Amino acid sequence: MATPVPHGVPDGPGAAPVPPELAKLLRDQLEAVADEVEEEVRAQVPEYAARSADERYRALLRSGVVQALTLFVDHIADPRAQGDSITAIYHELGRGEALEGHSLETLQSALRVGGMHAWRLLGRTTEELGLDSAVMAGLAGLAFRTVHEVAEAAAAGYAEGQSRSTDELERRRGRLLGLLLGEGPLSPEAVRDMAHGARWTVPPYVAVVVLAASPDQREEERPLAAAGALVDMESRPPRMLVPDPDGSGGFGGRAFTLALRGRPAAIGPTVPLTEAARSLRWATRALGLMGRGILPRQGVVRCADHLSTLLLHSDEPMLDLLRVRALAPLDTVSEQQRGRLAETLLAWLLTGSNVPDVAARLHIHPQTVRYRLRQLEKVFGEAALHDPANRLDLILALTSAQKNEEFLNSRP
To answer: What are the pLDDT digits (tens) for 164-222?
Structure first.
């Protein structure tokens, strides 16, 4: 953000008819002028007034004022002087403002206020010396040149600092996300300290979103994260921690889906911040079930909407054992019969053993339902179909088998 050069700024040898001996006179007054300029900046620029108790910022302000005045006097002494060492200092000042997360406008305001006040003080001095208008015009040109050079250096430094600040902020947020999603115990103090360094507001509740991996990780496929979200697109699967998911930082229905740019995703349950790893585990499990077709393959799946399915598949070996034991009687019938009988049995169990409801649900004749039920009583035994504990096992086994069609089709 370079400051435009005003018309009439001297730009080369002999451009300003200013007597070089004026430089010595002004240099002798430099500290006194710096005192007044520094006081004016603190009075006129609120940000510097607020930092007046900070010795570091007082020193930075003082240094900036002295260096700018020195550069101006150097230009009077030798218009050919480039002042590289001084503009380098302003480059660092601008860079420091960016790294501290401050606006460049604060530094630019200080330059404007300080420059105008220094010019007023200079006018008083030149009036006392009786300098003519040509000299005043030359001094004005050198003053504009000085302000332009330091402002341009500060803007370049600020741009560099912003770039580095953004990279560093991303690294800090990445480390914070790693801490929050790690398996070890979380220290609230450590979280607060790391969140402060990452400029992240600590929320009471969060949810973790995991995304289906993209093979080429193109930038245009990167999700538009919710406000305050911590994102790690390098992990497998990519993940995003969303603060206050049920409040102002919520998923926003269709808006959140659009922000994911069409990528399938699973949203873990909302949990306290210290339990973020648990939300990640459930979201990751849900994404795995999406890949297998047990949960919808496309769109956004919320774990809160599929708790029973997630619970059923939380221990796959145990679920397999339940299915094998509960559905063992179906091994005695043909594959074609197995599918029809399993479908009918589940509908019968879920509808409270109501034959007309089963028929309507399966779009078949009630007499067909009764026929299949007689077959099921032969296969399972009438007592087993009416035993409450056995009925629950059958519902769980049949529900999971229905979501995993390969299970029924692969039975001997």
So the answer is: 666 777 888 888 998 999 887 888 888 888 888 888 889 999 999 999 876 655 544 55
What is the DSSP secondary structure assignment for residue 81, as one 8-state letter?
-
Please return the burial class of 171, using the count of CB atoms within 10 Å of its CB with bins 0-12, 13-18 and 19+: exposed
Q: How far apart are CA 208 and CA 303, in angstroms?
A: 10
CA–CA dist 305, 76 (Å, integer)? 75
Residue 338 near residue 330 (C-beta atoms within 8 A): yes
Token duo for residue 305: 């909407």
C-alpha 373/C-alpha 362 separation (Å) is 14
Q: What is the DSSP string of 272-318?
A: EGGGHHHHHHHHHHHHHHHHTTSS-SSSEEEGGG-HHHHHHTTSHHH
pLDDT digits (tens, 9 = 90+) for 217-253: 554 455 555 567 888 888 888 898 988 887 655 555 5
DSSP state of 215: S
How many whole angstroms from its chain centre is CA 271? 19
Q: What is the mean pLDDT of residues 35-54?
A: 80
Triad 252, 214, 182: Cα angle to 5°: 70
State the DSSP code for 222: S
Burial grade of 157 (CB within 10 A; 0-12, 13-18, 19 or more)? buried
Residue 79 to residues 17, 85, 97, 310, 343, Cα–Cα distance (Å)? 10, 16, 30, 77, 94
Half-sphere exposure of 75 toward its Cβ, with a 13 Å CA cutoff? 31
Q: Among 177, 153, 42, 149, which Cα is nearest to 92's?
A: 153
Judge contact between 71 and 83, C-beta under 8 A. Answer: yes
